[in-house]
Amino acid sequence: MATRNNIVLALASLGAIQPSSAETILGAYIFHRHGDRTAKSTPPASLTDLGYSEVHAHGSYYNSRYVANSSEAHILGLGSEVVKLSQLAVSSPSDNVLQNSAAGWLQGLYPPVGGAANQTLRNGTVVEPPLNGYQLIPVSITSTGSGSESSQWLQGSTDCQNAEVSSNNFFNSDIFKSYQSSSLDLYQSLSPAVNATFTEDELNFKNAYTIWDLLNVALIHNSTDSNAALANVNTSTIHELFLLANVHEWNLAYNSSDTVRAISGAVLAGQALEALNETITSNGKSKLNVQFGAYATFLSYFGLAGVASGNPDFTGIPDYASSVAWELVTNATVSSDGAFPPTSDISVRFLFNNGTSSSSYDLTAYPLFGGSSLEVPWDDFVTQTQKFAVTGQEQWCSVCGNTDSSCASNSTSSGSSTTTGTTNSKGSGISNVVAGVIGAMVTLGVVLGLEALVLLASGLRLVRKKTLAAAAAAGATSSTSAENVGAEK
């Protein structure tokens, strides 16, 4: 697939990971970004035909990796042609771009099966399904994150008060003020190309992402005949704007001194942990979990899990159709009845593909938690993830400082959502509370007992400009880390 603006995230240094012949993949959790869309600054954003093609192609890649029987990475027992809905759970916020991306991706993951889907009725009539055996796969829709791809200002939570304050603090930080001053002339020079969308007062670093996003979309889809001013926005300029957008979004998504800013990544970590634990404790009844969400959630997780500290390229905005995957892997012999080995023989591998900027669809493995190994023993993965994951509603309320709505009933409750215990009879598992991770909708239909929990975050949320201004006026301070800021993709 063609790269966009020749901006490539250089994340292939470790090479694409192919499992050894002796290895078995027991299950996986995928977090995926949408495909190409229209600009955020001209809402409502919508998935383009190009974006549809992108996510479909990436869904086809995951078919070749996890679904196809011929693949060495085939997930143990996963239906290889006709989908078994009990094995698969897919979710998306209520959002046109993300929902349609999920649907298009699933068409690639499980393509039409032709005559294999025919049904013969009692009277002998053969029913041929529409669209050459198109497979109907439900996507669980969550109310949180609604319209997130039409939101122009992103930050680290959905209704998490402390995270909103933390992200807004960036706009009063020294690093923000420095970029605001040094880049002003560049942004002002863009007026001829963007004045139909942005006023002169809005042409500054505070709008770094939405300005770059508008021009990036225009340079993909518009001809210079429709906007002659685009001719003055050359490759060098758009690259500089992209780097500034990286700085802007990384600092809104993560701060090493104030990790509540990365609440969306903390919730994602909890969701992945809960889903993978369910795969283990159910002996693989739940095999593949997929969630579609916003790019800033990638950044938040990269910061929390130590991925960015080991490779500063991870402070760059993941491109369209990017995805991460957590794989449960073992080199132990799996019994003929499909029973999983003890958790001491199970590890987690973390992989990433930078979507349309990548030279291939292949996933590449990277170390987690500041380590060097590409595989983390399950027990260690649990321990390290629990250090920053949000693993229950009570914990979320405490971290976020919320006391209204659903948090009101938790303010007088006792106990801790981070208490550890065991749930797996074959070895160390995760706590009973972790089994109630926020975001149970991600595994709806697999973990029915979690239906009452609220999915608190699946991506970064809208921050109103008035709120930003108010926070800055209040004199809030930020100890933003600039260690990896501005890394080139």
Automatic annotation (TrEMBL):
<dbReference type="Pfam" id="PF00328">
    <property type="entry name" value="His_Phos_2"/>
</dbReference>
<dbReference type="InterPro" id="IPR000560">
    <property type="entry name" value="His_Pase_clade-2"/>
</dbReference>
<protein>
    <recommendedName>
        <fullName>Acid phosphatase</fullName>
    </recommendedName>
</protein>
<feature type="signal peptide">
    <location>
        <begin position="1"/>
        <end position="22"/>
    </location>
</feature>
<comment type="similarity">
    <text>Belongs to the histidine acid phosphatase family.</text>
</comment>
<keyword id="KW-0812">Transmembrane</keyword>
<keyword id="KW-0472">Membrane</keyword>
<dbReference type="InterPro" id="IPR050645">
    <property type="entry name" value="Histidine_acid_phosphatase"/>
</dbReference>
<dbReference type="GO" id="GO:0016791">
    <property type="term" value="F:phosphatase activity"/>
</dbReference>
<feature type="transmembrane region" description="Helical">
    <location>
        <begin position="433"/>
        <end position="456"/>
    </location>
</feature>
<keyword id="KW-1133">Transmembrane helix</keyword>
<keyword id="KW-0732">Signal</keyword>
<dbReference type="InterPro" id="IPR029033">
    <property type="entry name" value="His_PPase_superfam"/>
</dbReference>
